[in-house]
Design brief:
Layout (H helix, E strand, L loop, with lengths): L9 H6 L11 H131 L1 H5 L4
Length: 167
């Protein structure tokens, strides 16, 4: 970290006056060194600004990545919840379809049973009707046989009627 109490700029290095003293340092060499230090400070300052800009960019990218990560996690959680809800709804609808199918099956079975009872009743009625008609035909045939028997016996008793003659 840079200590904020001592902040040296390239201009500060160029303008600094060392003062004069006897038998001091070679002024030209000191000026040359000051210029080199100032240039190095300028280079380091530019490099520092570039690095700070890059760091700021990286921090922005990191923030954006974190936001995307959060959004992706939220989307994933939502998708998982939605998947669970869809599965539950599908299961409920499946149960409902099965119940409706069973109810429809029961209804069709009841209807078939009712139809069967009606057909059995109709069949029983037809059987009774057949027996009645057979009995009626039998009675009719028995009457006609009785009449034939009576006519035959009468013709045997009256020979003229047997030949078709009038009396």
């Amino acid at each position: 970290m840079i200590d904020d109490t001592f902040h040296l700029t390239p201009l500060d290095v160029r303008r600094y006056d060392f003062g004069r003293a006897m038998r001091g340092y070679d002024r030209e060499r000191v000026d040359q060194f000051r210029e080199q230090v100032a240039e190095e400070l300028e280079r380091l300052t530019r490099l520092n600004l570039e690095l700070e800009a890059k760091a700021k960019g990286f921090h922005e990218q990191l923030r954006a990545f974190r936001e995307r990560d959060k959004a992706l996690n939220d989307a994933l959680v939502s998708a998982q919840q939605l998947r669970g809800e869809i599965a539950e709804q599908a299961e409920r609808e499946g149960h409902l379809v099965v119940r409706e199918a069973r109810a429809e099956g029961d209804r069709l079975l009841d209807q078939a049973r009712n139809d069967l009872r009606q057909l059995e009743q109709q069949l029983a009625g037809l059987k009774r009707s057949r027996r009645t008609q057979v009995a009626q035909y039998r009675a009719l045939l028995e009457r006609q046989l009785a009449e034939l028997d009576a006519a035959e016996s009468a013709s045997l008793d009256d020979p003229a009627a047997a030949n078709g003659e009038d009396a």
